[in-house]
Amino acid sequence: MQRIDLPSSSRLLSPDFTFGVATASFQIEGATQADGRLPSIWDQFCARQGHVKNGDTGLPACDHYNRWQKDVEMIRDLGVDAYRLSIAWPRVMTQDGQPNTKGLDFYKQLLDRLQEFDIRSFVTLYHWDLPQHLQDRGGWLNRDTAYRFQDYASLVSRELGDRVDTYATLNEPWVSAILGHEVGIHAPGMTNARLARQAGHHMLLAHGLGMQTLRQEAPEANAGLVLNMGPNTPHSRRYDDRAAALIGEASMNHWFLEPVLEGRYPQLYTRLRPELTPQILPGDMEIISQDVDFIGINYYTRGIVSFDREKWVKDHAAKDAEVTDFGWEVYPQGLTDLLVDLNSQYILPPLMITENGMAGDDHLEQDRVHDEQRCRYLQSHLQAVHEAIEQGVDVRGYFAWSLMDNFEWAEGYSKRFGMVYIDYETQQRTLKDSARLFADFLKQRPASR
Ligand code: FCB
């Protein structure tokens, strides 16, 4: 792959389209006990045997807490417009709700450096590292956690002031609610479908309360939230498989989007599975459905589904398709389809692609990493975004997941999503071919930018 190719008229090449790279605190920072950082649910989850592959933990990760200065230089050298990071709640707030100055200083310095380098910051408040002391009081099953999140959002926005360009309240509440409380493969590792939807409702409430606070404390910043989505393709043309695809999308894509944009849960799903509908208090949906400045979409792959008599929806592996090291199908068309579909179903705020990328079986050979599949993935997914824009969708930015290899949740360090290769023993960083490709592309954008 020599270079990324897009039509010269593409909106992706216009000055107002933002390109960035993304990370999250627990996945890169390491230093889990430094400077008064409190334990999070992911520290606890990693410590429980058999939950994370190879017994991996948040240490060392990329030791970014100690190496951030070089990492920010690396981000600058890529030539991106923006950097998406998350704040570790247990680093910046003490158990009694006071600021942890040392933890906050880490982010202040980092954000200041980004500003010096003219890189816009895109800050996620909650990328899954809930303080363990809140979990001990019920975590997201306890409605009070939504109010504790609001306190945290208030503390962060007051402390960080105008250093932050854009806030996302939550990252992928579907994953933290469903994988964390129904499937049980993420922290806190529970397995109850009804409680999972209740946890999800409290997360949405936290989002809404957080939005109120951000509007007051950081009126200049953009604010919204980030959702994971993928279209569901019916396994056959049979009407029941097509119905299963709609049900699958209602339970994932629309379950978190419809409350935010339209103030209600998808009726297709609440009618079908009334026993899962969370308890909603008067006023909740109004809080949840305040105006957002953007919706962030994380896209990796699509689902292929058929009708199932017990579970309604059954997943299938894609046959004869190209897959990544995670086994996920490479399906760029799904990104165009998803965006175009959402645009026809909702009145959308501007969209940002806040994550897109793939896990590769990457190896360091003579200081190079030839991640040819990731180069193709990048090209085809940028093309997919371009096509969605051509079809009328207002997409304003694209963030690659991820800047560097990192702790991939239940998969530990076994899955490499980075454009930069991390040698976890030496903490050496090496640009993969995809990083070089991305940087060349970013530098070749028209000079009028
Ligand atoms: C997303 C997460 C992100 C990363 C990618 C691969 O679901 O937001 O932290 O793990 O998947």
What is this structure, in a nutshell?
With 449 residues, the chain is of the alpha/beta class. The chain has one domain (11-444): Alpha-Beta Barrel (TIM Barrel). It has helices spanning 25-28, 41-47, 64-78, 89-92, 101-116, 132-135, 144-160, 173-183, 193-217, 239-262, 267-272, 284-288, 333-345, 372-390, 433-443, and strands spanning 18-22, 82-86, 120-126, 166-171, 222-228, 232-234, 294-298, 303-308, 312-316, 351-355, 395-401, 420-423, 428-431.
Overview of the structural elements:
It is a single chain. The chain is an alpha/beta fold and 449 residues long. Helices cover 40% and strands 15% of the residues. The protein is globular and about 55 Å long. The structure holds beta-D-fucopyranose. The site of beta-D-fucopyranose has 12 residues, from loops.
What overall geometry do the principal axes of the alpha carbons give? globular
Tally of domains: 1
Largest sheet: 8 strands, parallel, barrel
Q: Strands across the major sheet, in which order?
A: 1-2-3-4-5-7-10-11
Number of DSSP helices? 15
CATH superfamily: Glycosidases
Per CATH, the architecture is: Alpha-Beta Barrel
What distance separates the N and C termini?
25 Å
Total beta strands: 13
> Could you spell the SSE succession in H and E letters?
EHHHEHHEHHEHHEEHHHEEEHEHEEEH
Give the C-alpha Rg.
21 Å
Beta-strand content: 15-25%
The hetero molecules present are: beta-D-fucopyranose
Low-pLDDT residue intervals, each spanning 5 or more residues: none
Question: What is the percent of helical residues?
Answer: 40-55%
Broad structural category = alpha/beta
Average pLDDT value?
Answer: 97
At the fold tier of CATH, the topology name is: TIM Barrel
